[in-house]
Amino acid sequence: MAQLEHHDIQGFLLSSYGHLPCATYLLLRISDVASSRQWLARLTDEVRTAVAVSKAEREQEVFSVNLALTHTGLSKLGLDPAALATFSLAFQEGMAAEHRARILGDTKDSAPQEWHWGNADNPVDILLLVFARDEDALEAQLRQRRNDIVAARGIQEVSALSAGRQEDTKEHFGFADGIGQPVIEGSGRLSRQLDRTGHATVLKAGEFILGYVNDYGVVADTPSATGMPDFGRNATYLVFRQMAQHVAEFWRFLDDATRRSDGTSDQAARERLAAKFVGRWTSGAPLVKYPSGDPHAGTSTLNSENDFEFYENDGHGFACPIGAHIRRANPRDALGPDSQTALQSAKRHSILRRGRSYGHRLANPFVEDGTERGLHFICLNSDIERQFELIQQTWINNTTFSGLQRETDPLIGNHDKTDRLFTVQDDPLRTRVSNLRSFVTVKGGAYFFLHGLRALRYLGSLKDSIFHYQTEWRDE
Ligand code: HEM
């Protein structure tokens, strides 16, 4: 088993910072290279690493700062073209590139031209992730970070994306989130995951951290730079998508779709259909294990059970529909030819989700209040194309997924090439929900690189001539 170099890995890669419930993501743009490098060099000393701390120490933690860069950011900081060419193609092109938008299904209102940020009109170089214990600590951190940015005089704030305080682990449609999550081998998180969910998919470190052996048994090519061949070691690719959720539209649609013949609302049928969309009840309880009802209905109890597969227990989708969000996002053992092969293959398309909701909870889920709310979807992976993009393209937005016809993910799918249907398999007869809407709109996004600490120091100490750095690096 690989020994992870915790001192060089950013803390965000191994932790979602549940103990720091307040967060703001600062999107920054570089205008002066020399001062930005100096700012980066100073900041790197404050970036939280993944070095394990005791429970008592963690409870004392007030904030955490982590940092990631886009391809343009790296280029502006002076990484030479040969080094830039060693990054994955998806990262080099960026999420807003026409070709990638097609892969991701970002069309119409979700097209990059419509985005608030991350497109050609409003590009981003740096993502500064600031997490804090409470609102006051977050305010204090943001004040300090902004003072440093202003003093550096070479960096502009493009946007501050607030994820506020997480009230609970429910996303805005009302479902428990953050349950299905792989464990990185050697990360020390296995027993916690087993305790929490009753299940753990342990994956090789190289699936999420560059420079380590992956599920294929090899160390994948990692970015390298002049004078620092292992520039990409201990890093990961960070996918960021600001996804607005149209909550009232979602619940009104479900309400209309499940009305009784006399036209009155049927709450139980509405909640059941919502659960069929997701594959879990709002409490988080999985349909495969609880097909007939939410075991926690009417309570605020959350359920993180994750010890189930589809092939044996629910091959036909009678409990969790074939096209439900969790079954598309992670088909587990369902996509043949046999359950073991399917499981092995699905593991190679896993992501670590680190998203947080933004915006206030809608007071009445059936009445829009004119403000934007949604999910700052963040995921980490060592191969954007094989992991995040494959899930998005081959599973979520696949109109012929697992034998279905002309439908996509009912929660977040692109409906351009569908009949706007969602099939709920049942015995003896399936039912079909029609006239699906887009309940989610992408408002911005980018591919970032979450570096190891040594690589950040390398970038901060780059001079216009690379040879200065090489001298300093050898002296260290
Ligand atoms: C607004 C957008 C989204 C919402 C509201 C949402 C909601 C949810 C919910 C409620 C769950 C079930 C709870 C859990 O297992 O954590 C879930 C699971 C999951 N989602 Fe999403 N999601 C969104 C976007 C995405 C995107 C863009 C992807 C990837 C392309 C994705 C991938 C996954 C995965 C991999 C799982 C875990 C499946 C499993 O292992 O069972 N989600 N999501």
User: What is the molecular shape?
Assistant: globular
Count of distinct strands: 13
**Hetero groups:** protoporphyrin IX containing FE
Given the structure, what is the number of helices? 17
Write down the secondary-structure element order: HEHHEHHHHEHEEHEEHHHHHEEEHEEEHH
Helix content: 25-40%
Oligomer: single chain
- What is the mean pLDDT? 95
Helix-and-strand structural type: alpha+beta
Could you give a short account of the major beta sheet? 5 strands, antiparallel
Key features?
476 residues; 13 strands; globular; 30% helix; five-stranded antiparallel β-sheet; disordered C terminus; alpha+beta; 17 helices; 2 domains; binds protoporphyrin IX containing FE
Explain this structure.
This protein has 476 residues and is an alpha+beta fold. The model is unreliable at 465-476 (pLDDT under 50). Strand 11 and strand 12 form a beta hairpin. It has helices at residues 11-14, 33-44, 55-60, 71-77, 81-84, 89-93, 98-104, 135-152, 190-197, 247-257, 267-278, 311-314, 325-329, 339-347, 385-396, 453-460, 466-475, and strands at 22-30, 63-69, 126-132, 155-165, 183-184, 202-203, 236-245, 352-353, 356-358, 374-381, 422-424, 431-433, 440-450. The protein folds into 2 domains: 6-167 and 208-242 and 448-475, no CATH class; 244-444, no CATH class. Strands 7, 8, 9, 10 and 13 form a 5-stranded antiparallel sheet that branches. 30% of the residues lie in helices and 16% in strands. The chain has 17 helices and 13 strands. The radius of gyration is 23 Å and the shape is globular. Protoporphyrin IX containing FE is lined by residues 171, 173, 175, 177-180, 243, 245, 278, 280, 325-326, 329-330, 351, 374-375, 377, 388, 391-392, 396, 411-412, 440.
